[in-house]
Amino acid sequence: MLSRRSFLGTATVLASATAISGRAQAANIPEAPMMEKATMQPPLRPSSGPDYNPVVTLNGWTLPWRMNGDWKEFHLVAEPVEREFAPGMKAFLWGYNGQAPGPTIECVEGDKVRIFVTNKLPEYTTVHWHGVIVPNGMDGVGGLNQPHIPVGKTFVYEFEMKHSGTFMYHPHSDEMVQMAMGMMGMIVVHPRDPNFRRVDRDFVFIMSTYLIDPGTYLPKVTEMTDFNMWTWNSRVFPGIDPLAVRLGDRVRVRIGNLSMTNHPIHLHGHKFAVSCTDGGWVPEGAQYPETTTDVPVGAVRVFDFNADNPGDWAFHCHKSHHTMNAMGHDVRNMIGVSRKELASAIGKLAPDAMVMGEAGMAIGDMEMAAPNNTLPMMTGTGQFGPIEMGGMFTVMKIREGLARDDYKDPGPYNFPKGSVAYEIDAPVTDAPRQTKPMQMKPDEMKSMKGMKGMKRM
Ligand SMILES: [Cu+2]
């Protein structure tokens, strides 16, 4: 739900030192829409200007704007927020307009945009428009391109969106802390030609990572590599929205990465091609088919494909530790090790103790004791049983006949009869094996070409 928090008459304005024209006055600051929900909001269709097919943001929303003359005006408020990662876990983050990540900023190639940024953080900040080609004084690097935005102040960024494409925004001010606290968002600039590579469904999300100790709420901002929350739009499975797609749709997925490592993103059941990066559109002749695309740190990858295969298709990061929630890393590999004696010895001392891991770590429906505000390491249930995933995992649900703006979860896939892998009632038998070492006579060695002379001895 949108709620509106008006800053009229209350905010003090400092126009950017490099504002190019039409400096904004305090009375002219647009309202800053706020978001209370962490669920996907419907696409924001343009009511004026060029036509385009708007994006939907996984577990997010698009920032409403207002027109002021020929300027499109947005208002971002940098502030502390509470973000639910999945039911059962919340984090205290920093973000924009009530959520982290911030809302998606959507506009059209050639738009003149004026973006007000109000700082309600306890320290200064800036906003950098990653990938957008802007005049130097609008680039948002604190100290280099502008003074940092002091606590309680509002700065204005004004520039033209010269190129269509997919970009990001994030602070360039105490960057390590502010990005580790979740401050980031996506920018989508639609082509002015509404038919340029038009798609029917257009999804967008940004990847970030956190280290939040079980039972606590605050990310450890000095962590460099060993994160335990691998998120899409600061959500983890099973809290990430499914991607509802109509069978036959042309689909685009736009992915930004402001985490500290790369993520190979994999879609089942289809092939796709990367059509756009944060540097612009990839020419069609340079595209090639893939099922996984690696999204480097500080980069955007966008892929397009035809949704021609109905079903519930897994869509996830292919680093298996990134489809897990919080877990200990000091677990020894005990596969194949019998610990029966150890178990009975421990059982005498601690009757509740459980020895596990001899056959793997599948835990199915098993409930393990955990502190409050902690998610299970592997979780989620499908129509056939436990899914045992977490982190960067969700499901693309391709169904016949969905309405244009219908993005709600269509429920589990109704498999056609006889189309699911099945068990047969048969005894396990040994496959025939070669029992003697293979021997060859010299004349057989000669005829090895083409393997014709090989005989089992
Ligand atoms: Cu990953």
Structure, described:
The protein is mainly beta and 457 residues long. The chain has a domain at 2-314: Cupredoxins -  blue copper proteins (Immunoglobulin-like, Sandwich), CATH 2.60.40. It is 5% helix and 32% strand. The chain is built from three helices and 25 strands. The chain has helices at residues 175-180, 340-349, 442-446, and strands spanning 2-5, 32-35, 56-57, 66-68, 71-86, 89-96, 105-108, 112-119, 128-130, 154-160, 165-170, 185-190, 201-210, 229-232, 243-246, 250-257, 263-267, 273-277, 280-281, 292-295, 299-306, 311-317, 379-382, 385-389, 393-399. The strands form six sheets. Strands 3, 13, 14, 16, 18, 19 and 21 form a seven-stranded mixed beta sheet that branches. A hairpin with a 2-residue loop joins β4 (66-68) and β5 (71-86). The longest helix has 10 residues, at 340-349. 39% of the residues are buried. It binds copper (II) ion (CU). Residues 230, 263, 317, 319, 322, 392 line the site of copper (II) ion.
| CATH architecture identity of one domain | Sandwich
Order of helices and strands: EEEEEEEEEEEHEEEEEEEEEEEHEEEH
State the CATH topology of one domain: Immunoglobulin-like
Compounds present? copper (II) ion
- Average pLDDT works out at 86
The CATH superfamily of one domain is known as Cupredoxins -  blue copper proteins
Keywords summarizing the entry:
5-stranded mixed beta sheet, 7-stranded mixed beta sheet, globular, binds copper (II) ion, 457 residues, single chain, mainly beta
